UniProtKB/TrEMBL annotation:
CDD domains: Rhamnogalacturan_acetylesterase_like (cd01821). Keywords: Hydrolase. Pfam families: Lipase_GDSL, Lipase_GDSL_2. This is Rhamnogalacturonan acetylesterase. InterPro entries: GDSL, RhgT-like, SGNH_hydro, SGNH_hydro_sf. Belongs to the 'GDSL' lipolytic enzyme family. GO terms for molecular function: hydrolase activity, acting on ester bonds. Residues 276-448 form the SGNH hydrolase-type esterase domain. It comes from Polaribacter reichenbachii. The lineage of its organism: Bacteria, Pseudomonadati, Bacteroidota, Flavobacteriia, Flavobacteriales.
Length: 500
């Protein structure tokens, strides 16, 4: 019995030592806590918005250290803790971990309202305000911004972790060529808490503002921030903030330096390509009286996330686009994740065996016709056959084909916009259904809007003829298509389409 007790005692001692060694051998972790400027949404760049915490890993030697981004959009220093998010991090902390802290953007909100109820009392003192939270119904004692930041700092220190406080990143707001600093509010209070607790403070607000000012407002807007959003950064803006933080941490000249890589070349998210394949109603024709909708279409796209590549060519049908090698030239650039819009029909009704040799056989079947073109005998197929080939080739590349019906002409038989519903509109839809790909009825969507505007107003869209629009008409069509894309979950472009 005594031997058994001794053996049990030694087993317990060995287990304790093993656990202790296991903890000692664990890599330290960089934890980031903050709001959407640290991690936007799920951290996947949806809508083109990124937080600086999403790029930190690229600067770290992940054989020596790990990183976990626990920031959550919409939170303040108060609600981050009230929601239990800080507790989740605190419970995981161990000696030697780092906690990078940045709050302030949402702390300026109302202390108690029915929208967010997330504000904190200004300053770093011990003032409090008792409320019955209008959202949760919970009786709550609200503290100052500094009180909440200091709680995170003290909690982290109690676990042997190392807190680092950042002032909030600047907003893309300019006055007389300069970005206003927050050095009399949240930036100041963040620094005061850092000084009071003898922890590192990084004045991210000032340093990032200075760097942005070197580029100027016109370049910053649309590159590092979006026109529609003065708070949240693009990938480039987030990477800039991350680089500044790392540069400042390297200056500490202590053991933290061993976790950083040298000469990092930041990898930014690759842009998605949108290819436009079609005729003159889509193409850049170099003619102000014949502007394809593909020309103004990029105005409705976030070109920091997508490239719009217009391969459409005036005067082409499905047949001639393939016959002349335009299709092969375009498809060699398709890759997985790209989207290819295919729209034909206006020229497919042309002559099959003379003049421009651009007509295709009607329908979607496998009928063929041998046509003599000088010394060459060409096998002509149906409109649907050519369209099917484009769809299948696109799928083989890993890209997503989207079939569009042709644009309506400025023709009003019996007072109604003519749409070719029984021919090219119908056949385009049938092919898309047969090939199980996405179909957009541009003809019907635009025609309905034309009908609402009336014949006289629509006439101004067509300065040259009944087929080709000027810039205003092209923009009208492009916006209509953008509206459809904004609603479509299936196509997956909702986050890159802007209608304002």
């Amino acid at each position: 019995m005594k031997k058994l007790q001794i053996l049990l005692f030694f087993n317990i001692i060995i287990s304790i030592i093993s656990c202790d060694n296991s903890n000692n051998n664990q890599k330290p972790i960089f934890y980031t806590v903050g709001d959407s400027t640290v991690k936007n949404g799920k951290g996947d760049g949806y809508g083109g918005l990124w937080g600086w915490g999403d790029f930190l890993e690229q600067f770290l030697d992940t054989t020596k250290v790990s990183i976990e981004n626990h920031a959550l959009g919409g939170t303040s220093s108060r609600t981050y803790q009230a929601l239990g998010l800080w507790d989740n991090v605190y419970n995981k902390l161990k000696k030697g971990d780092y906690v990078l802290i940045q709050f302030g953007h949402n702390d300026n909100s109302a202390v108690n309202d029915t929208i967010r109820a997330r504000g904190t009392i200004k300053g770093i003192g011990n003032e409090t305000e008792e409320i019955d939270n209008l959202i949760t119904g919970v009786h709550e004692i609200v503290h100052t911004y500094g009180w909440y930041i200091e709680k995170i700092v003290k909690d982290a220190k109690s676990k042997g972790a190392i807190p680092v406080i950042m002032s909030p990143i600047p907003r893309n707001v300019w006055k007389n060529g300069k970005i206003p600093r927050n050095n009399t509010s949240y930036g100041l209070w963040a620094k005061q808490i850092a000084d009071r607790n003898d922890v590192t403070f990084i004045n991210l607000n000032d340093k990032m503002s200075t760097e942005l000012e070197s580029f100027g407002e016109s370049k910053v807007t649309g590159t590092y921030f979006y026109k529609r959003d003065h708070t949240h950064t693009s990938a480039k803006g987030a990477a800039m903030a991350s680089q500044i933080i790392v540069n400042e941490l390297k200056k500490l000249n202590n053991s933290i330096n061993k976790y950083f890589l040298d000469d990092v070349d930041i990898s930014l998210p690759k842009k998605q390509n949108i290819f436009l394949i079609g005729d003159s109603t889509m193409a850049n024709n170099g003619n102000e009286n014949a502007v394809g909708w593909g020309v103004p279409f990029p105005e409705f796209c976030d070109t920091m996330q997508v490239n719009v590549i217009n391969k459409a060519r005036g005067g082409r049908s499905t047949r001639t686009f393939i016959y002349e090698g335009l299709w092969n030239n375009a498809k060699k650039d398709f890759k997985e994740g790209d989207i290819v819009f295919i729209q034909f029909g206006h020229n497919d009704a042309g002559n099959i065996d003379k003049t421009k040799f651009r007509g295709s056989l009607q329908g979607i079947g496998n009928e063929t016709l041998q046509v003599q073109r000088d010394s060459i005998v060409e096998t002509v197929h149906t409109f649907g056959w050519y369209l099917t080939k484009m769809i299948q080739d696109t799928k083989k590349s890993g890209a997503l084909p989207v079939v569009l019906s042709l644009t309506p002409r400025n023709e009003w038989p019996n007072g109604t916009v003519e749409q070719r519903k029984e021919t090219y509109v119908k056949w385009a839809k049938e092919v898309a259904e047969k090939e199980k790909t996405i179909y957009i009825d541009v003809s019907d969507s635009v025609a309905k809007k034309y009908q609402e505007l009336g014949k006289e107003k629509v006439k101004d869209f067509f300065p040259k003829d009944h087929t080709h629009t000027g810039l205003n008409g092209a923009t009208f069509t492009a916006k209509t298509i953008a509206e459809i894309l904004k609603k479509s979950k299936e196509i997956g472009l909702r986050g890159v389409i802007y209608l304002d």
